[in-house]
Protein: Cell division protein ZapA
Organism: Flavobacterium cucumis
Amino acid sequence: MSEKLKIKISIADRVYPLTVETHQEEGLRSASKKIDTMIKQFEQSYAVRDKQDVLAMCALQFAAQVEQKQISISQDNDTALIRLQNLDKKLSELLENKNVLTK
């Protein structure tokens, strides 16, 4: 069983106490730093009324990045599948031709 850690993560000037697995700590701390960096960028670039608006924009940006990565992975998988199907077809044709010649 993994060991649990009690950590405090700060996001948008609020502290969130969490109990996490040891292997999750680094990722959570890194994510909170990225969120705070993004918050500062949005606050500097746009007239923001409150933190909720900035947090919503951060959530949208992170979700869009995840979605784009999934689309890229899907396209890569589709390309690989097509290549494998073409290779299978060529190998089948070669084997069929070899069988015809040996008979």
Remarks:
- The first helix runs from residue 25 to 45.
